[in-house]
Every structure is written in structure tokens, then in C-alpha cells.
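Sanity check record (used in CI):
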Amino acid sequence: MVNRVLMIAFHFPPLHGSSGIQRTLKFSQYLPALGWQPLVLTAHPRAYERQGTDQLKDIPPEAVVQRAFALDTSRHLAVGGRYVRAMALPDRWVSWVLGGVPAGLRMIRKHRPQVIWSTYPIASAHLIGLALARLTRLPWIADMRDPMTDVDYPTNPLTRRIYRWIEDQAVRHSCAVVCTTAGAVRNYQQRYPQVPPERFLLVENGYDEENFAGASAVTQPAPAPDAPFVLVHSGIIYPSERDPVELFAALADLQAAGQLVPGQLRVVLRATAHDEYLAGLIARHGVGAFVTLAPHIPYRDALAEMLTADGLLVLQAANCNHQIPAKVYEYMRARRPVLALTDPVGDTAGALLQAGIDTIAPLDNRQRIAQALLRFMAQVRAGTAPVATPAAVAGASRRARAAQLARLLDHVGVQRTLAPVPNQAEET
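Expected output for Glycosyltransferase:
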């Protein structure tokens, strides 16, 4: 008998420009060898604002992929650039639920999966998972990645209430809640003390060795002897969670003090998805001579850029202390020096410190950023900047993470639950 898992994921090729694609894509690649055939239920490509074909070839032949009806409310249902807010709750792709539930039922009837798995950060994916689990009574694994809610997140109170309801339903009705950081696991265990703590599990993000093998084959021009120090941030920069305003202020301070001059440093912000906002900050601080906003490039080219950069930049605010950007694991595998601007007590800093990387400064402190940047550049030039240890790199592969998920699927597929969830109404 073939074991099958229905994987509900919005982020899947041909979506372009999000590292979130890699989690589901790599699980789908490695699960077949571990005894599980992936049945991927994703959104119709029209729902994606940006599309690219470079990762379509990475979808394994064993995978069954169904692209269900979905629209982007802001692009397809707006009139004069405006739309009714209820049409974008819990997110702009809520119409995917209307297409995803019937499509999922058809897949379940045809392929008979043993387990349902849905993954955030698109909340509608968990609505589909919840509906299918309730309708079919199949065991459901809710891959939260990060906590969906916090005290002040999402910032809109109505959205926060809806997210909290989805979160509560996922905890109540799923067999397991999976997170990508230990801090997120602890967060859920503390918030849901009535739920057995073993129901909350850790399966981190990682890097893929095959992608890096392909990236190594990408030819990069050799830098000129007098080339500037290149510091690369690869991926989305969220204004509320990775705001580089204090970094730009630090660059302005260093320039004003004569400690940094144009031509010494080039900060490349690759595929930020918020170029207009960042361009305003760059102009306001007068650091255009140091900072470059670079367009999206194919994934393997982005990895090749990491492999040849002088340094790699992490931006993560303290309001995301229970999150680790997926790119951190790729940075580790690149074995390049990393400058992390993040809370020293957050999970991102913890992961880097565990890997042997201590070049860290708070994202919200311009003075400490300035000091850390100068020290980092000096360490790199001297060849003394720390890089991830071989042990840390070996343990962070996507193949190893897929093996963790396969063990969970084996358990849930047989037991159909990890532990019963007490009815909250009975406890009050």
C-alpha cells in the first residue's frame, strides 16, 4: 500500500520571489524516498502576483499537483483600486478556500491519502485543511511555521481575531502543530496549557544541497582588486519586521564621521518586494552611494550570489523573536560570514550562535550597528570572521528535515492522533 499525504500550500512553483516556496517543494521532493507520495493542493497561478518557471522543474514526477481556483482580491476583485475588506479576510486569497475545499475532496476520493498537511503563512491554507479534516475525519497536521498571532499581530484587530480563531481551530482539531523554531513551540505550549505539550513539534527550515551544487556551477565574475566590500541581503524586507532604517542611519553616521566612504562598501538588497519604501529611506538618509536595490533573479543565481558575497546580511526585528528567516540556513550552508542585525536573545540569534556565528547587533540600535559593521568588515578582510560550523551545516539540510516530517507522518498515519485535546468548554 502506498502512503499518501495531501499537502495544502499556497507557496509553490510557479510562485516567484518567496523563500517560503522551498519548504513544501523540498518536502515533496524528499518524501517519496521516505515512503510518502505527495499530493499537492495549491492555488491557480493567476493568484500569484509574480510568476517564474525556474523552479517548476524541481517538482518531482511522483507528486500529484492540483491547482485550485483562487483569486487575489486586491488585483482581481477591486474596483478603482478599492475592495470590501471582508473579501480579504483572513487574507487576499480567501477565494482559494472556495476552490480548494472541493478540489481537495476530489483528490481525497481519488487518491485516498492517509494524512492532511497544511502550511502557513497564508491563513487560507489552514481553513482548507480544517474543512477537509472535519469533512473526511482524516488526521490533520497544521504546519504553522511561526505563531499566527501575537499581542499586537496582526495589527488590525479584526484580522487578529480571525487569525486567533483559525489558530484555535488548528490546535483543537489537528493531530499535531508543527513550528520552525523552538521559541514558537514554547509560545504555543504556554498559550495552550490544556493541550499535551508533545502535540507541538519542531521541524525547522533548512537548505538544499542539490540547489547549492547547481549554484556552484553558475559562473560569477571575479571581483576587481579595488572592488567594494559586498554585503548581500537576499529576499523580502518587511517594513514592520525587518526595517533597515537604523542600518541606513548608521551608514549615514559612518559617512559623516569619515569612517566609511563611497566605494568601500556596497549593500545589495536583493528582491526586497518593498523597493519603493526602501528607496524613500535610502534617499532620506543620503546613503544611495552605499545601498543598491537589486531585482529578483532565479533562485540558483541568488544562491550563487550568496556564495561569492563578502558577507551576508540578516535583518530581523525583536517582534519576530520566535521566528528564524529561512534564508539563515542557506547563509549557513554558503559558509560565508554573516552580519545579523537582530535581537541577541531571539531565536534567530540563538540559531546563529549555536552555529558558531557571533557577529550580531540589535536591529534598532544605530550606534551598535555602526560598531558591528566596521568590526565585521575588518574581520572579513583579516580572514577571522566566523562562519557556520560543519556540524551546524550538516544538521540543517532539507533532506534531514523531510526525514523528521516522514517520521511524524508515519506516526500520525498509524495512530491518527498524537494525544487527545481536552474540550475547552468542559474546562471552564
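The two ends are 44 Å apart (CA to CA). If this sentence no longer matches the regenerated C-alpha cells, the check is flagged for review.
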